[in-house]
Specification:
Radius of gyration: 29 Å
Number of helices: 8
Structural class: alpha+beta
Largest sheet: 11 strands, mixed
Strand content: 25-35%
Oligomer: single chain
Distance between the termini: 65 Å
Length: 681
């Protein structure tokens, strides 16, 4: 089963240790886990034990566990521990590590051998004990898990500081194929961080064919790949034993936040965050919830077997830690602890490659912030998508990764955070090179994970935000090849589905594409149809003209995606945050009239425009051989176009824009005049 693959509301997935009540008596230990981890594992119960062979070949197979109590345990645990014991040329080696649970089901804590069993996430409260010198021992560390049957690439998600995109280490990317990874790493608690990512334990290559040796290690490998990938070293050990443990839970939780979760704020600028459950151990006499933020602690208490707290948090640049304790005669245990909880606003980015906004030239990682969050991954593989059901930090430079939002989105989000002092979640579902048909909803099964719409919809539902999205920003149309009718019909169907799924308060923004298809600025039908959507469909038009860092299809960061993020921020700020309105709207014509050898383009606002020398070259005339000789802005909100001759016979005026850098016609924020085709009267 993939990590936290539960098709219910997000609150039921958040504290994976305690969702379903089963047998709640504390399990007796069946055996001593061995001298190596016996002391560290006090209070834990061994659940799985596995003697690792030299070679495995375990793809899609049940493993030969010598101890298996998963069915007995069910979901009745609040911590998970592992002991790996090796004996080889360097003598006995062992490591013990324990952490908050990453799954609600004990069946998921062993080696993953079946498709879709993908765990790729941070864990808090990591404890480590080992006799291997390069392993950092101690409590309260931050960990990162990479557990899957897949092969994987060196590409990093950037969720972990100080990892490499060219080596196999603590932050790699699962891909299609079989190899196998079961890794726990120590990582920095923040991004950025000065702490080096270090392997705690690694068991690799267990789903490779049976003639391939396992690659195993404790601590960071001193040579080769840091996480022991391709080590092929299992034959050098005479003992290879993995034991998995759980700590039996004292309470079950039905509602609670998740680490790094953003809870949408309400009209009172905050959110109630429920924490609810049941005392399941008879020795528990009280539960306490402590909500800690900025050195202040609010404590809530209950002696009821069934309890529910609804603490309120403010929407501010302020992390909250939720710590639930179970108290009884002689004990006071932290049974759940969730960190980094915030309240703020949610935005969705959707479309093709310019919505993905990958790093083509220049980095946007300077815009990343601990107050920018995302949920899941925009991966197109349904199994990978459905396995990622946790909150991440938003990242701008990488694509199709946990937390990927794109370069202009990360810039827009950072501007919102810095200006309005509110956390922001951006959830991106974009997929490059796709026509509008690709993004449609399967009405017979809206949550169909084989569809782009279904993958995005299930992420929004699991995050608990689908009905509280403040804005959707759309950038798509290059792949529709100037077919305006197909594009408009597809967008209207998509818009209707969004409105049905997201509710009536969400605002919708359409970036008019620069080209359709890529490399072509002479075709105007689709762009004019997009411009008309602002009048007919209740959306707000955003311009991509005026961006000089353009290669014919995509954009550099400086002069491109960075500026687009600024332009879109200004419009969002005006509409949703009470920001300035002057010079913000994309310059948009209302009408064109002819008089003698001139055309006058009446604009929809009186915002002053800057007309760069040479901008006349982007205008085309229909119905006459005359051309536009010059363009000037006229006070009050119009453009005066001087023609090469009388306007007799002129039927339409086209502003087609161009590829690459200026000259441009721009407003005060640098946003370019929308492309258009208008009849001349």
């Amino acid at each position: 089963m993939p990590r936290r693959l539960l098709a219910v509301s997000v609150v039921a997935t958040l504290l994976a240790s305690t969702v379903t009540a089963q047998a709640h008596a504390i399990l007796p230990a069946l055996r001593d886990p061995g001298v190596g981890c016996a002391a560290a594992a006090v209070g834990f119960t061994p659940v799985l034990q596995l003697t690792l062979p030299e070679r495995a070949g375990w793809l899609d197979k049940e493993l030969p566990y010598t101890l298996d109590r998963r069915t007995e345990v069910g979901s009745n645990f609040d911590r998970v521990g592992y002991c790996l014991e090796l004996n080889g040329p360097d003598g006995p080696q062992r490591v013990w590590t324990a952490m908050e649970p990453f799954s609600a089901d004990a069946r998921n804590i062993g080696l993953p051998t079946n498709a879709g069993q993908i765990t790729r996430q941070r864990v808090d409260d990591l404890e480590v004990a080992s006799n291997v010198p390069n392993v950092t021992t101690g409590l309260g560390q931050t960990g990162y898990l990479e557990m899957w049957p897949n092969t994987y690439a060196e590409q990093t998600s950037t969720q972990v500081a100080n990892t490499s995109p060219i080596t196999f280490d603590a932050d790699d990317s699962p891909t299609i194929g079989a190899y196998g990874s079961f890794q726990v790493s120590q990582v920095g608690a923040t991004r950025p961080s000065s702490a080096a990512a270090k392997t705690v334990l690694a068991i690799n290559s267990f789903t490779q064919p049976a003639d391939v040796p396992l690659s195993i290690g404790i601590g960071t490998s001193p040579s080769g790949q840091p996480d022991w990938t391709f080590a092929g070293n299992a034959p050098r050990y005479t003992q290879r034993k993995l034991t998995a443990y759980v700590r039996t839970s004292l309470v079950t939780l039905s509602e609670a936040p998740q680490d790094r979760q953003l809870v949408p704020r309400d009209a009172a600028n905050g959110a109630n965050v429920p924490v609810a459950g049941r005392m399941t151990d008879p020795n528990v006499t009280e539960v306490q919830l402590r909500v800690i933020s900025n050195g202040h602690t609010d404590t809530y208490r209950s002696r009821s077997r069934d309890f529910r707290f609804t603490p309120r948090i403010n929407a501010a640049l302020q992390d909250h830690t939720f710590e639930l304790r179970a108290l009884g005669s002689g004990f006071d245990r932290v049974v759940a602890r969730r960190t980094g909880v915030v309240s703020g606003d949610v935005f969705v980015i959707q479309g093709q490659s310019n919505a993905e906004a990958a790093k083509y030239s220049g980095a946007a990682n300077v815009e990343e912030s601990p107050w920018l969050r995302s949920y899941g991954t925009p991966a197109s593989d349904g199994q990978v998508s459905s396995a990622d059901r946790v909150w991440h930090y938003a990242t701008g430079d990488v694509t199709v990764q946990s937390g990927s939002v794109g370069q202009w989105a990360i810039r827009m989000g950072r501007r919102l955070v810095d200006t309005y002092k509110v956390p922001v979640a951006i959830i991106q579902g974009a997929h490059g090179g796709q026509p509008i048909s690709f993004f449609q909803r399967n009405d017979a099964n809206p949550d169909d994970l084989t569809t782009n719409y279904g993958r995005l919809r299930t992420r929004l539902k699991a995050a608990g935000v689908i009905s509280q999205v403040r804005g959707v920003l759309w950038y798509q149309g290059e792949s529709d090849n100037d077919n305006a009718a197909v594009h408009v019909a597809g967008f209207r169907a998509l818009l209707a589905d969004w409105r049905a799924d997201f509710g009536t308060t969400t605002r919708y923004y359409v970036n008019q594409v620069r080209t359709s298809p890529c490399g072509n600025t002479t075709s105007i039908n689709l762009r004019e149809a997009q411009r008309a959507l602002g009048d007919t469909d209740g959306v707000v038009l955003l311009s991509t003209n005026g961006l000089s860092g353009h290669d014919g299809c995509h954009y550099a960061y400086l002069g491109g995606y960075r500026d687009l993020g600024d332009h879109n921020f200004a419009v969002i700020a005006r509409d949703l945050y009470g920001g300035p309105s002057a010079g913000v709207s994309a310059p948009n014509p209302a009408s064109v009239t002819a008089s003698g050898s001139k055309l006058v383009v009446k604009l929809r606002t009186g915002d002053p425009l800057t007309v760069a020398a040479g901008a006349a070259a982007d205008f085309r005339i229909e119905g006459s051989a005359v051309t536009v000789s010059s363009v000037a802005y006229q006070a009050g909100g119009s453009l005066a176009l001087t023609l090469s001759g009388p306007a007799t016979g002129v039927t339409a005026l086209i502003y087609q824009s161009h590829i690459g850098s200026g000259p441009w016609i721009t407003n005060a924020t640098g946003t370019g005049l929308l492309s258009f085709r208008l009849r001349v009267s």
